[in-house]
Amino acid sequence: MGTLQDWAAAQNIHSMRKLAAEMQGRPGSPWPTDDHRSHTTIATKLAELDRGKDVGWWWGTGAAFRPALAFVLGRELGELEALRPQEEAGHHFGFAGFPTLRPLDLRIEPPFPGVPRELVVPGGPPEHRTWWVAPAGAGKTLVGRWLEQRAGWVYLAGARWRDVANALPATGRVYLELTSAEGHAELLAGYPGLRVCVACAEQPERAEYSARLTGANDARGDRTDGDDKQAEWAQIASPPLAEWLPELVTWARARVEVGGGFAAAGPQAFDAEALEALVHTPGEALELFGVIDEVGLPGDGEWTPRTLQRWVTSWLRHALGRIGASSAPARQLSKEGGELIVKLVAVRLRRGLPEWLTAAEWAALLPATKQELDPAELIRLVQAGGEDLQKRLLDALAATPEAIVELLRQVRALAPLPGAAPEVLALRPRWLAEVAKAKAVEGMYQGIQEDPVRDLGALLLDPETAESALERMIEDIAEGNDSPARRALDADARTPEGAAALDGAVRALGIAAAMGSVVDLSLAERLLAMQGAFFVQRFTERPPMPVLGVTRPDRKFARPLASWSLAVLELSRRLGSTARRVLPREWAPWGDDELPPPLLARLTLCLQEVSIAAYFPEGGWLESDWRRGAFALGAALVDGLPSLPQSHDAWDLRHPEQLARAVRLNLEPPPVLLVELLRLRFGLRMLEEACARNGITLKQALVWCWHRWGAVPEHGECTPLSWAHPNTQQPVGEDDQRALWAAAPATVLGDAICVRIASSAEVFRFLRPELWERILVVLAERLHWWEIDQPALQAAPFDVLLRTFDKMTLHAQSKPVIDALWRRGAPALRTKVAELQAALPDLGDENGPLAMIHWHAPADEHRGLIAGLGAWLNAPGAASRVHRWAWHWLLQRIDGRKPGWREAFALVEQHRDAMARTLAAQG
Fold it and tell me: Residues 794, 829: contact at Cβ < 8 Å?
């Protein structure tokens, strides 16, 4: 009879079937209720376990059933290790968070992908002192076990150095898995003969460590010398996720049991970019894969609240199984853990608390429960008996908030920040925190909690959620759903949450309207009236405005003020004269009567805030359609607020509209304004919107601009060239630059701008062939050869360069063009020589194309050119028509002993008389 049977008999259980049935049916047993296996299947596994067969199943795929087995046998979970053969326990490494993953056999298999390669080399890390900065889930325990099995290292784990000091040998190799780096410097002084590798989430605190990382085949062995090298730490970091995630997915697919959600998930589910925000380490990734394997992925890709809840519940159950928890808190977490964690996050957001809290602060977020009973009270309940005794006992033994938080800390669902005080905790792993937060935010946004207005206000107040909540409100309104904004009608603006809900509703309605959406103006009027009742004169130079608005503490005031100003002005514009009943006069400037100058000055300052935010977006929703709304407001200002000062500031919302109107009406703006318009600081997208409003195309507007850019003087400002060197405040995309150059007519490019373009290599990729042709002609005719930039001649299309050569007025300064032709297309130039020789009655003058090609030919082309001249000279009657340049060219080949000079000498000797006559005739 095996150990398992002995333990079962001690509990008056005499069969494996009865033991399995008790595991499933006994009250309080932590049987995994969402597992499809029946107790008869588990009975078979129990029989195999007692015979020492397939023992690894209980520490791998079936790990979730071990707590129930320990509960029924009356044993601690750790005592079940006695059922595991020593060889099985020592050489295998299972994955409790991914139980369907085949355990590693450390005798023959390396660790999972993502472990630094410097650690798992033959013999272990070769440096005398190695410090691995390893966050949770990096594989610290796995590497320690692997080094222990494969390289004979001593593996020790503890919270700090002092916890393992007494167990250290005097010499040898030791791998230390530590929670804290505190006190590690003692290691240097007291154990010079040890080769040590430390795995810790914290960096070494007062040590010097080398930047070098050793290779895999370093065979220096253990160093025991006492020189300064022993004081160095070779610091190693885990590789970034993108380097190991694809390999880890492939590795896990090869080891997982068939039939689960992980194997069924497509490759897109494990995209490194998508997972980067959810997992940081291979261990975290494998736990997430284990959850996916059990719960699965939604078929339509949408994360429903039920799916998210099942993810959290599944992870918690496996985490509780790892530590064998069977207490009242464990029972509550097993059944309600997903919902409880989501509630924790929701309460934290409602109270505006940060992500990192102490254990006591986390406990304070949980609802109060009954306290643990003292023994006397427990005895009294048992003696009272009754049919409902079990229910009363379970109710009485309900977990306290402190006990639940402690258990969440034990399973690492609440984890400390590395390097910070250990009592400061946050939800972890990251994917669990994000999933729980997403579900909490969804419930708060949808208003399904007890106080929907307060919840909406809390989301808009919190820096973590304010921007995403506002963006979602805008999107909902654009799609015709203004229910979140209507919820603000019940807001109490005298509370921060109420004021934020009201402000968010006004912003969302106004920004959606500015972006072109149809909004309920009666709703807008009611919300503006409610918010307007609480306006204050915060700044003497600006109009009245709310005390509290949706904002982010890490942003400047200009951004929230800009978005609110845009929203209110757009709503007031749509409301017309009605707006004056609910808003101060500055915020309702539209109409026939002019705004008094003091009020107009106040409004102008707010419009400047909107302009700056539109010209320099900081990201998020401000960066896209919000800008369209801001410039659309600027277009409305041109006609709707003519009293607005006609300034020529660099950042003016009216500029796109003013430029489009100038093009449509063929008007020439005043010089100062024209300079600003031609800079296109607002970008092509905003200009295209303005063009559409005016019934013209973007290309028409750009051609209008090019007629003015093309005529700029040599040192004048030219937007297309300045866009090639954008400053950090206003980067210009490549698509905009391409569109700009695509609209450029070659005929409007003056000489000055052609010369400047030729020295701006950044724009070469945008130039069309006809532009190159114009630029090259200017270069060849206007510049000295030393002024022509070679990059332009190398970048120009070769066929254009060759066509330009045919049209050029040639002279000695044409050398760079011909040099470029020879370098880039010698065969084509040889053909050109043959064509010219066949077509010309003589060899042309010294500035002719044939002469220029010869004079600027590279040395390795000389023999061929000499042969061509010989064929021409030997033609009947040709010698009398040879220009002197050809004789001089041949003579220089001879004088310089250039390649082919002997052939040149023979040719000159053959035609000596003809050469003398030609030179004499031509003076």
Answer: no
Least confident segment among 43-47, 483-487, 805-809: 805-809
Model confidence, pTM: 0.68
Q: Is the pLDDT of residue 739 over 90?
A: yes
Amino acid identity for residue 439 in this structure: K
Q: Which of 182, 133, 144, 141 shows the shortest CA–CA distance to 162?
A: 182
Q: Report the chain's terminal Cα–Cα distance, integer Å.
A: 126
Number of neighbours of residue 435 by Cβ within 10 angstroms: 26
> Cβ contacts of residue 323 below 8 Å, gap of 6+?
77, 410, 411
Q: Can you tell me which residue has the tokens 């109270």?
A: 351
CA–CA dist 82, 4 (Å, integer): 9
pLDDT of residue 738: 92
Q: Exposed, middle or buried by CB within 10 Å (0-12, 13-18, 19+), for 557?
A: exposed
**Rounded-to-integer distance, Cα 128 and Cα 918, Å:** 88
Rounded to 10°, the helix 305-323/328-350 angle is 140
522-533 pLDDT per residue, tens: 999 999 999 999
How far, in Å, CA of 685 to CA of 705, rounded? 15
Cα separation, 430 vs 417, whole angstroms: 12
d(CA 718, CA 744): 13
**What does the angle CA 104 – CA 105 – CA 110 come to, to the nearest 5 degrees?**
70
CA separation (Å) from 69 to 23, 52, 63, 823, 893? 6, 16, 10, 83, 101
Q: 250 is written with which tokens?
A: 């492939």
Q: How many CB atoms lie within 10 A of CB 897?
A: 8
Place of tokens 């977020």: 365
With 90 as the cut, is the pLDDT of residue 304 above it?
no
